[in-house]
Amino acid sequence: MKIFLKTEDELTLMRQANQLVGRTLGELAKHIKPGITTLQLDKIADEFIRDNGAIPTFKGFPNPYGGPFPASICTSVNDVVVHGVPNDTTVLKDGDIISIDCGTLLNGFCGDSCYTFCVGEVSDEVKELLRTTKESLYKGIENAVAGKHLGDISSAVQEHCEAHGYGIVRELTGHGIGHEMHEDPQVPNYGRRGNGIMLKANMCIAIEPMITMGKRDIWLDGKDRWTIRTRDGKLAAHFEHTIAVGKGKAEILSSFDEVERIEGKQY
């Protein structure tokens, strides 16, 4: 395992890449409504990222099970946990949820963030899943402090979600991030406090709870060899921030500010 601590200059570039991801998610939030296809959302994101001088890191990302990822964002609808492939046949409808995972490469550094959106009106039960998953992300971030351990982040996510009766996907994890989108260490969403590597200031990691309304079991859809679904067909939520470990408090490098501003106007 090789972990790269970022310099102050490198953190500046990490902020820029991740803020662009936040603005991209905000741009997409304007268009998420019944009737739009996931391919249309992908085209909006691709154009926005490139117009801002960056490259979408997901496009062409290698797959050990098949071909490279064909799109610029992941669009995971309802029971899709992660890696949903945008297409022109998946049309969003009222009551759906969609997790949009987005990555950028800007000035040699990567940004990565994910947000789960409501499409039109959703049930209170669905809102609670999204609320709890998002809360668990911030519970994890609160523990991303120098001197603590990786397991402190993982257990904070797990404890919060399991207390509400939700499943914690175990096969998929968060990750280190920097020049490459996926670097060491892996950041699971389950674990024990005090376990794992000790956190150091200026470690950059992506924390990303992937939480299910039912059981935690998942499967790989063989149609595209990318899409990961819940085994029981129940909904899944996914929220992600890229953060820098701090001495007293983590710094959140990505942002939901623009998304939440637009959501506030819509609802």
Number of beta-strand segments: 15
Roughly what percent helix?
25-40%
Give the spatial strand order of the biggest sheet: 8-7-9-14-15
Helix/strand order, N-terminal first: HHEEEEEHHEEEEEEEEEEH
* Largest beta-sheet characterization: 5 strands, antiparallel
Let me know the average pLDDT: 97
Per DSSP, what share of the residues sits in E-state strands of 2 or more residues? 15-25%
Low-confidence residue ranges: none
**Integer-rounded radius of gyration:** 17 Å
From the N-terminal CA to the C-terminal CA, the straight-line distance is 45 Å
The helix tally amounts to: 5
Query: Helices and strands: which structural class?
Result: alpha+beta
Oligomer: single chain
Which descriptors would you attach to this protein?
267 residues, alpha+beta, 5-stranded antiparallel beta sheet, 5 helices
Structural overview:
- This protein is globular.
- A hairpin with a 6-residue loop joins strand 7 (174-176) and strand 8 (183-187).
- It is of the alpha+beta class and 267 residues long.
- The model has no long low-confidence stretch (mean pLDDT 97).
- It has five helices and 15 strands.
- It has helices spanning 8-29, 38-51, 124-142, 150-163, 257-266; strands at residues 55-56, 73-77, 80-82, 97-106, 109-118, 167-168, 174-176, 183-187, 204-207, 210-212, 218-220, 228-230, 236-238, 241-244, 251-252.
- It has a five-stranded antiparallel β-sheet. Strands 1, 2, 4 and 5 form a four-stranded antiparallel β-sheet that branches. Strands 3-12-11 form a three-stranded antiparallel β-sheet, with no helix packed on it.
